[in-house]
Amino acid sequence: MEVVLLSTPEECGRVVADAVAASLAAAADRGARVVLGLATGSSPQLAYRELVRRHWEEGLSFDGVEAFLLDEYVGLPAGHPESYREVIRRDLTDALGLDPAVVHGPDGSSPDPLGAAVAYEEQLQAAGPVVVQLLGIGGNGHIGFNEPGSSLASRTRVKTLTEQTRRDNARFFGGDVDAVPRHVLTQGLGTILRAEHLVLVATGEAKAAAVAAAAEGPVSASCPGSALQLHPHVTLVVDDAAGSRLERADHYRYVLEHKLPEQGW
After folding, report:
1. How far apart are CA 136 and CA 171, in angstroms?
2. How far apart are CA 176 and CA 186, in angstroms?
3. Pairing state of beta strands 2-6 and 103-104?
4. pLDDT tens digits for 202-228?
5. Which residues make Cβ contacts (< 8 Å) with residue 3, sequence separation at least 6?
6. Beta 103-104 vs 65-69: how paired, if at all?
7. Start-to-end CA span in the chain (Å)
8. How far apart are the C-alpha atoms of 199 and 136, rounded to whole Å?
9. Rounded Cα–Cα distance for residues 71 and 243 (Å)
């Protein structure tokens, strides 16, 4: 795991955009199918803005890219403004010119959510490996919607949100926690770990404990983010506030300063 400690959230956004662009370009160069894994929420928004800026101002191309979402609420009707398909459309994919037909997510409005989970897992496997998967992390260590206690080998399935996660997400529903669905469809930890490159971004003091547990704590279902330690190619991008509890922070800064150019992201 490469831990990248930076001064500001804006710097984090730029580095995440660098990592995404590099992974997509490498896949295109080797003739691989270019599959991008997308997260929603506040953590990746600065990176998305930077990708959009590069697309419009520098010609960064997303031709041939197919995108898959990490998760979706169960029970929100199609087109609901807080469904993650709508959120990612507003935040990123419309601005990148991606056809909605190549942006996929689990069907949270299905009358059979268990079947929808199986179908989405099969769709992900058929698409081939995700070239680069963007991730955020919750204050309790969840990635995707894999709450503490999730199996490290789990696949796409229905999960019940903790009350803390529902409270955290109430801000997207006008502050009304009762409006936040209790169930979600989420890629499992085992599904996420199939991606070739995992890029997790976290900013702010509220994420500091989760970041430290994920990067330096034991691998445990109690902190789902710690499953990233099992993956061969992880870039963890955090600002000073989110990295404030990292015991090896000085070492991470030293490694970044002396990184070989050819190492890339």
Report:
1. 17
2. 22
3. unpaired
4. 999 999 999 999 999 999 999 999 999
5. 215, 236, 238, 243, 246, 248, 252
6. parallel
7. 11
8. 9
9. 26
